[in-house]
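Whiteboard transcription, Tuesday session. T.W. wrote the structure tokens on the left side:
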């Protein structure tokens, strides 16, 4: 059953919280990033949305991996785009976190939990999020540059279509938005899935956008925390033009207070539970 078939014309969803709390790569401060465990914890903890990065494998499958290579996060080595899904399925994507916490923590003969810590496909993540029993949005970042260029967006549009997520649900609620630092990626999404909301990610606010403007058909700005420290007035300017502002990656309490004071629409964080508690919404 797709997300679309679970909602009829009479269903009414609660209004979106403000600001929205978005779990960056899942609850990645307490679980290995981009693993099923990280997303399950984020959803159970009350995150309003989850964020993931997607890359295309050699055999054309979208997987949730941030880096070009798997070396930092997994038990293997290599470039995602040169590996097939079967190769990635043999790797433990909790190994990188364990190495960082304590190189001596895990014995060599310990059996990894590949169900919760194996490679996570976008298909699987969508299934988990859309069947979790409450509205949770998904922010999907396409990673560029890549050897597959526009094929990433083509596959992404196909996956969203299979899950009935390529347009808003009958009640007008949009489950998915696509983010990228590459304007070319967002333009391709506009062609392939014109009703999907798009987010232009920015490490710094370019001079041409400091008035709050965004490229055609992009409705959400995604500045970094550092960008807003330099250009705090950007939030008010963008919102005055009808755009939303989703800031990343906000982990420290003082930084949360800073972006709350600016009136941002979404806070993307590695620590969704902590941010929810700071907002008075957590346990």
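and on the right, the sequence the group agreed on:
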């Amino acid at each position: 059953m797709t997300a679309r078939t679970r909602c009829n014309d009479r269903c009414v969803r609660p209004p979106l919280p403000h600001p929205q709390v978005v779990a960056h790569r899942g609850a990645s401060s307490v679980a290995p990033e981009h693993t099923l465990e990280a997303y399950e914890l984020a959803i159970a903890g009350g995150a309003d949305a989850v964020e993931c990065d997607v890359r295309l494998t050699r055999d054309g499958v979208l997987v949730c991996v941030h880096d070009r290579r798997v070396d930092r996060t997994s038990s293997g080595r290599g470039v995602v785009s040169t590996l097939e899904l079967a190769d990635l399925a043999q790797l433990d994507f909790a190994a990188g976190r364990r190495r960082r916490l304590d190189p001596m923590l895990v014995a060599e003969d310990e059996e990894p939990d590949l169900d919760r810590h194996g490679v996570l496909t976008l298909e699987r993540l969508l299934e988990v999020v859309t069947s979790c029993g409450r509205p949770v949005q998904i922010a999907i970042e396409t990673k560029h540059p890549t050897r597959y260029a526009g094929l990433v967006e083509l596959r992404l549009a196909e996956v969203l279509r299979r899950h009935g997520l390529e347009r808003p649900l009958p009640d007008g609620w949009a489950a998915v938005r696509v983010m990228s630092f590459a304007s070319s990626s967002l333009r391709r999404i506009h062609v392939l899935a014109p009703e999907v909301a798009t987010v232009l990610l920015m490490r710094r606010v370019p001079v041409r956008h400091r008035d709050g403007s965004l490229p055609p058909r992009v409705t959400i700005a995604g500045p970094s925390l550092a960008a807003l420290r330099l250009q705090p007035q950007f939030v008010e300017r963008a919102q005055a033009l009808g755009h939303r502002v989703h800031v990343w990656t906000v982990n420290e309490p003082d930084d949360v207070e800073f972006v709350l004071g600016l009136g941002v629409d979404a806070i993307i964080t590695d620590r969704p539970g902590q941010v929810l508690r700071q907002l008075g919404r957590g346990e």
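Someone added at the bottom: Residues 151-162 form the longest helix (12 residues).
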